[in-house]
Design brief:
Layout lengths: L3 E4 L2 E2 L5 H12 L5 E8 L4 E8 L1 H18 L15 E10 L3 H18 L4 E5 L10 H5 L6 H4 L21 E5 L4 E7 L4 H11 L4 E2 L20 E2 L6 E8 L4 E8 L7 H14 L4 E7 L4 H14 L8 H12 L9 H4 L1 H5 L12 H9 L7 H24 L8 H36 L6 H42 L5 H26 L5 H32 L1
Parallel strand pairs: 5-7, 6-7
Antiparallel strand pairs: 1-4, 1-5, 2-4, 2-5, 3-4, 8-12, 8-13, 9-10, 11-12
Helix pairs in contact: 1-2, 2-3, 6-7, 8-9, 13-14, 13-15, 13-16, 14-15, 15-16, 15-17, 16-17
Length: about 550
């Protein structure tokens, strides 16, 4: 697995395009680092940058960007709505794959030490990179902001973790850490009142508000037996929030950090703000995401809003994303382009999905060409995807059938299973061709010396094993889809019974066609214990598919 971390530095400049470009250019000078997103905000006067890569390369790119920002940004001149304390205000590292949080914290500490020593800049560690949990919270570290930092830095308890304990008037200070994936999310209100926006923010944020007697704003603070202020928690866990007024748009917003989206996901935060705003006579008009968002967050949001309507959630990713964008008004202030804002879409290599993204006519033309790939394996996977799609169609039509409203949820569950099978099979279309190409590449390796012959033989065997496993996965996914097809033939919309029959024929074709590929590739693999096991299992799956097709077609014939 690739070792990948993400870095999301926030720079205290959101208006001067030249300065922003100069900083982000430093990131692109590091080979192997991919700049994913640059999101400037005029009102906040802040730019959120996202890039990914191997840990060592990422921390090198971050160092260069921090260095450049310190030269180009003068905090003495900075004004903006967002809390900040330095030119590079915060620089978190986030583990993406192949890296533990503990390792990520170590990389953050390495970066902080280098910034402190080489750039002579005060640096504080936060979140998982900070051993002292009393000062690991970003909002506590940043309290007082840049304007109060000259006094704060000389306090013994606020000595920087790295770098000098000296106020740097131009650059301020930097906070570097390691954290889980965080979503920065703003909800738009139909008010210009910062005070009312803050009241809603206090209603929802985990930290809540200080309890007062009488007037909730100006009344005396209630204290406990130890003299500490009593706090009333907000309604959302793992959420930080403040209210502010954005002059650029002429509205107030609730600005939130969702620090654990498995605890409070995007759609729950949106709905809760809607509820708390409505209770105060205020309406939510839309929202905006700052930086990037995981694909799953928008898919879950789309399903959530469909289920609230008692509609089937078993639709395509594209439709779920479209619904999430429209429901939460993510495009109210600026266009929201999924291909530019969803992290998985930015990390995907378009070359890995050359076939499945083609038009039907282009796919057929490519198959009919003199090239041996795509061949029967890719076609088997695609036919299987069509069968699963038909099963999903029947489920969705059944969920929306007049008079069947009380059954929408069960049909939605079947539709989601069909969608999962379709997505798996669609992905395997290109992987089968990739497997063939890897075999051809292995055969093309040099064989002049004994060492080269050995390496070539090992490469051929590894590629052959992969070329067995991919069509075997096609068999598994297509056979799995037949459970949905059979159920839709039995209980689905009777007007679509023929579609269920065609779906069964597609699924069986996919299973049997993929089995042919398993067999032809297994003949060239030397580990006979592996091939014997695979062929035994594949033979059983083929027989099961044939039997299920027969049963499904019997049901179809009875209903026609």
């Amino acid at each position: 697995m690739d070792r990948i971390i993400e870095c999301v530095p926030n720079f205290s400049e959101g208006r001067d395009a030249h300065i922003i470009h100069e900083i982000t250019q430093e990131i692109t000078t590091v080979e192997g680092v991919k700049l994913l997103n640059v999101d400037p905000g005029k009102a906040t006067n802040r730019t959120v940058v996202t890039f990914v890569g191997e840990p060592e390369k990422v921390i090198e790119a971050a160092f260069r960007a921090i260095k450049k920002a310190g030269v180009l940004i003068d905090m003495r001149l900075h004004k903006g709505e967002h809390p900040r304390m330095g030119a590079t205000d915060v620089c978190p590292l986030i583990p993406i794959s192949g890296v533990t949080m503990e390792e990520c914290a170590g990389y953050a500490q390495q970066l902080a030490q280098r910034v402190g020593e080489e750039l002579n800049l005060p640096v504080y560690l936060y979140e998982h990179a900070q051993p002292n949990k009393k000062r690991s919270n970003l909002s506590i570290i940043r309290a007082g902001e840049y304007e109060g930092f000259a006094e704060k830095i000389v306090l013994p308890e606020w000595k920087p973790d790295c770098g000098p304990a000296v106020f740097d008037a131009q650059r301020g200070a930097t906070v570097i850490g390691a954290r889980d994936f965080l979503i920065a999310y703003n909800v738009n209100l139909n008010t210009t009142s910062t005070r009312r926006a803050n009241s809603i923010a206090f209603d929802v944020r985990e930290a809540g508000r200080v309890l007062r007697t009488g007037d909730p704003i100006n009344g005396p603070i209630v204290k406990d037996e130890y003299g500490k202020a009593v706090n009333v928690p907000g309604s959302l866990k793992s959420v930080k929030a403040i209210g502010w007024y954005i002059e650029e748009y002429g509205i107030a917003q609730i600005s939130m950090n969702l620090t654990n989206i498995s605890v409070t996901p995007l759609h729950i935060a949106f709905d809760e703000v809607c509820n708390k705003a409505a209770a105060r006579g205020i309406r939510v008009t839309g929202s905006e995401l700052v930086g990037l968002v995981p694909l799953q967050s928008l898919l879950e949001a789309g399903k959530y809003f469909l289920r609230k309507q008692q509609r089937s959630a078993g639709v395509s990713d594209k439709e779920l994303i479209r619904l999430a964008i429209k429901t939460m008004g993510l495009d109210e202030l600026t266009p929201f382009k999924p291909e530019e804002r969803i992290i998985e879409y930015l990390l995907n290599n378009p070359a890995d999905a050359k076939l499945i993204n083609r038009s039907l006519a282009d796919f057929a033309d490519e198959t009919a060409s003199e090239s041996p790939a795509p061949g029967g394996g890719s076609i088997s996977a695609y036919v299987g995807a069509l069968g699963a799609s038909l099963a999903g169609m029947v489920a969705n039509l059944s969920a929306h059938k007049k008079g069947w409203d009380d059954q929408w949820e069960i049909f939605s569950q079947w539709a989601e299973k069909a969608q999962a099978a379709k997505q798996t099979l669609a992905r395997l279309v290109d992987l089968d061709t990739l497997a063939f190409n890897e075999i051809m590449a292995a055969f093309g390796l040099p064989k002049n010396s004994d060492a080269e012959k050995s390496a070539r033989s090992q490469a051929i065997q590894a590629a052959t094993k992969y070329a067995i496993e991919i069509p075997f996965q096609v068999m598994e996914a297509a056979l799995g889809s037949m459970e949905v097809i059979k159920e839709m033939a039995a209980i689905g919309n009777p007007n679509s019974i023929s579609d269920a029959g065609v779906a069964a024929l597609c699924a069986t074709t996919a299973v049997r066609g993929a089995f042919l590929n398993v067999r032809i590739n297994a003949a060239g693999y030397q580990d006979k214990s592996f091939t014997d096991t695979i062929l035994t299992r594949a033979t059983a799956m083929e027989q099961q598919a044939i039997a299920m097709e027969k049963e499904i077609l019997r049901i179809v014939e009875e209903k026609l």
